[in-house]
Amino acid sequence: MTAQSESCFKSCQELLQAAEQRKILIHGAVSVSHAGKEIFRTATHGNPEALYDIASLTKVVSGLTLFLIGEDKGLWEEESRVGDFLQGAGKGTRDLRLRELLAHESGLAAWRDYYNFKARDGIFSSVLEEDTAEKKPLYSDLGYILLTKVMETATGKRVDRLWEEWGAREGWDGLRYSESLDRFSGEGEIIPTENTFHRRGFLVGVVNDDNCFRMDSTSLHAGLFGNLGSVRNWFWALWGGAIVPRPLVLKTIARENGEFYSGWIKKSENSPNAGSRLSNASFGMLGFTGCSFFYDPERDLLAVFLASRVNPTHDFTEIRRLRKSVYDAVVEGFDELTLAAN
Prior knowledge:
Elements: H1 3-8, H2 10-21, E1 28-34, E2 37-43, E3 52-53, H3 57-72, H4 98-102, H5 120-128, H6 141-155, H7 159-167, E4 176-177, E5 195-196, E6 201-202, H8 210-214, E7 224-226, H9 228-239, H10 246-251, E8 265-266, E9 283-286, E10 292-296, E11 301-307, H11 317-341
Antiparallel strand pairs: 1-2, 1-11, 3-7, 4-7, 5-6, 8-9, 9-10, 10-11
Helix pairs in contact: 2-11, 3-6, 3-7
């Protein structure tokens, strides 16, 4: 990073520092990269490569990546149906196409409370009996839980094992499910999420999502931990065609349903989830713990914002305001840096 980039992105750094002081988040970190190269990084934490529970970023990082690899291997297709793999699927789920699960248009409920379930199989069985009569764009954890069952049945392997075999690479080895976090065990290497009563204490290196926790901390809807470098490197490798052929990746943004692509969340125009300065072609993902990233194809600009905001409260208003401000500051800084370079 240059002194000029530090100056252009100063407001972004100040936003994070102020948010930590006001306890909007415990810790936060931002990475900005252009055309695959990082141009700015800041963090409130002493270790800028500390791991965060990235929550629903798992849906696209692990879920979409594994889906595309399996598609490239010929194990399934977008138009494959749930019933092609799961003989016990109910009448509401058997005819769902895998692309409908990926793009949050299956009609499955957004969320159910599975914390009192004792095993993964019970959760899978419950999802398989869900009603899907009204198909409309609706962000759904259940769709990715069902996709987890499909992939595991088709391959005979749990998705964390699939991730280790198919998805993990040296360039982004910080992207791990909690069972494989052994080497990230030092103090300050993993950012805590919340202090829970029902799970007795701070969650550090343990998945925050209760339903995922009941699934042995292994699902495609949540479960991954990651740091700035790993999320950044994974995205550029996927987008650049280093994981699967690029036509497969480009196909994921060829069809939209108003709010979602296949795996990705679109930048919202009506209720901006990524500020107002990123182009309307931008897409990315949001996570409950406070983590997010967005890519602007018009600028070839990626911004990764990792945060732990669920302690002391689950307030959404402040993190939404902060997220919009951070992404606006990123774009403002990038445009200023580009103008100076020209």
